[in-house]
């Protein structure tokens, strides 16, 4: 190997990024029904993400230092921290990227996520 050779991590190439993301556990939020609640634990925070009607990654989000209150945002997708982004995706090991109020917010890496199930509704007649 020449002293001029630079080793680039696989995830920094488009093919490598696509392979690594395909191997991660995750969810495309546009595949979820409107008003589905997703609880996402990152390395530093807990986020509550509620999908909105109309797709296009419109969500309500609360959590972390940038979303102390529930606000509308656009979940652009997830990244390993570089310039590649898997659109509309929440994936374990990746950073979520939101756009809200003209700001771009990138979270710490996702540790886990789950869809919050509604409590069963019981009716008595």
In summary, what is this structure?
With 125 residues, the protein is mainly β. The chain is built from one helix and nine strands.
Distance between the first and last residues' Cα: 78 Å
- The number of strands is 9
What spatial order of strands do you see in the largest sheet? 2-3-4-5-8-9
Structural class: mainly beta
The poorly predicted ranges are none
Main sheet attributes: strand count, strand direction, barrel closure: 6 strands, antiparallel, barrel
Total helical segments: 1
Helix-strand pattern: HEEEEEEEEE
Q: Radius of gyration from the CA trace?
A: 17 Å
How many individual domains?
1
Give the topology, please.
Layout: H1 14-22, E1 26-28, E2 37-42, E3 46-51, E4 58-63, E5 67-79, E6 86-87, E7 89-91, E8 95-100, E9 103-116
Antiparallel strand pairs: 1-7, 2-3, 2-9, 3-4, 4-5, 5-6, 5-8, 8-9
What does this entry look like structurally?
The protein is mainly beta. The chain has one domain (27-116). It is built from one helix and nine strands; from the N terminus they run αβββββββββ. A hairpin with a 6-residue loop joins strand 5 and strand 6. It is globular, with a radius of gyration of 17 Å.
List the defining traits of the structure above.
single chain; mainly beta; 6-stranded antiparallel β-barrel; two-stranded antiparallel ribbon
């Amino acid at each position: 190997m020449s002293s001029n050779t630079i080793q680039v991590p696989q995830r920094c190439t488009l093919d490598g990024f696509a392979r690594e993301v395909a191997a991660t556990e995750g969810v495309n939020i546009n595949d979820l029904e409107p008003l589905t609640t997703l609880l996402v634990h990152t390395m530093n925070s807990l986020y509550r993400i509620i999908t909105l009607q109309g797709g296009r990654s419109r969500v309500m989000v609360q959590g972390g230092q940038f979303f102390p209150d529930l606000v509308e945002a656009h979940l652009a997708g997830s990244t390993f921290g570089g310039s590649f982004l898997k659109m509309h995706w929440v994936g374990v090991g990746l950073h979520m990227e939101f756009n809200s109020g003209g700001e771009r917010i990138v979270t710490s890496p996702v540790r886990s996520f789950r869809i919050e199930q509604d409590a069963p509704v019981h009716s008595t007649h």
